[in-house]
Amino acid sequence: MKVLRHAIILLLLVLRSAAMAQDPQFSQFYAASQYLNPALTGNTFQDRIALNYRLQWPGVQPGYETFSFAYDHNFASAHSGLGGFIIRDKAGTYGLTFTTAAMSYSYEARLNRRQAIRFGFRAGYTMRNVAPEGYLFADQIIRDNAPTSIEANMVPNTSYLDLAAGGLYYSEQFWAGASFNHINKPNQSLMVDGDAELQIRTTVHAGYRMPLDGHKLIRSQTKMTLATHYKAQGKWDQLDMGGYIEHDRLSAGLWYRGLPIFKAYEKGYGNSEAVILMAGFETEQQLRITYSYDITISKMTMKSAGAHEISLIYEWPRRAKARKHKVVPCPKF
Q1: Helix, strand, coil % (nearest 5) of the chain?
Q2: What structural domains does the chain harbor?
């Protein structure tokens, strides 16, 4: 059983390297704004630091971990935003990881006092790694579980340039945007002379924010935000939709992930993945702390233990002193 298990793991690894792999994702997608869309770079009053951590399927030890650190700045006089982020993703036990360091730039063109469009571009460098010594190769099984493999077609790491672009339209209450990642379709293969083209990941996102206490949005203390996020990469696609309510410094929300009506990958296999619960708090110093939990509703059931995610976002200076110009009214987890 142990030999079979390791052989299956190796097969999955090779298939993942040679096929159209899926990028890491965040349930709190707007909390990783530069990763979502480079046009959102600098959609702040001035400066922002964001930390994101996601642990997916901890019931399938050791699970999948994703870390992200980002910083961006709004140059109001130049109608521009500049920032950068580092994201690291680790899948499974045997060191299948990738790390991306990227820089983003955005430019805002105001249509009138209440509407604007933004364009963004991102250039990154990705390093993808694996630890071959953790796997059992087919030739080792054939040679009576030999301690080493004679396979020479796997490399422990590869690296490549990664480019992305995006756009966004927004008004005081509504926004809609799209981004296109891996537009240069880099080769991410971990095989010698392999060809595993990284497919373009397309995302489309939109939202609407409304007051619930009878005041104008700018003065409201209780607001509701409805948002949706569609993403597609190769043959894979997915939809997040839901919303949350903000009251003073508290926030709570509910999201759904899946495409059950429009698509099923095969007969009898639905496309519902998770229901997501979210709760957050903002301190007087403008530090937002948000936790979310994915409740698995797919055939993996709760044995996967869902997914935990936390984000920390700090913005400065205080909004009251920096509100000389409007910024993107996007959801701020």
Answers
A1: 15, 50, 35
A2: 2-322 (2.40.160.40)
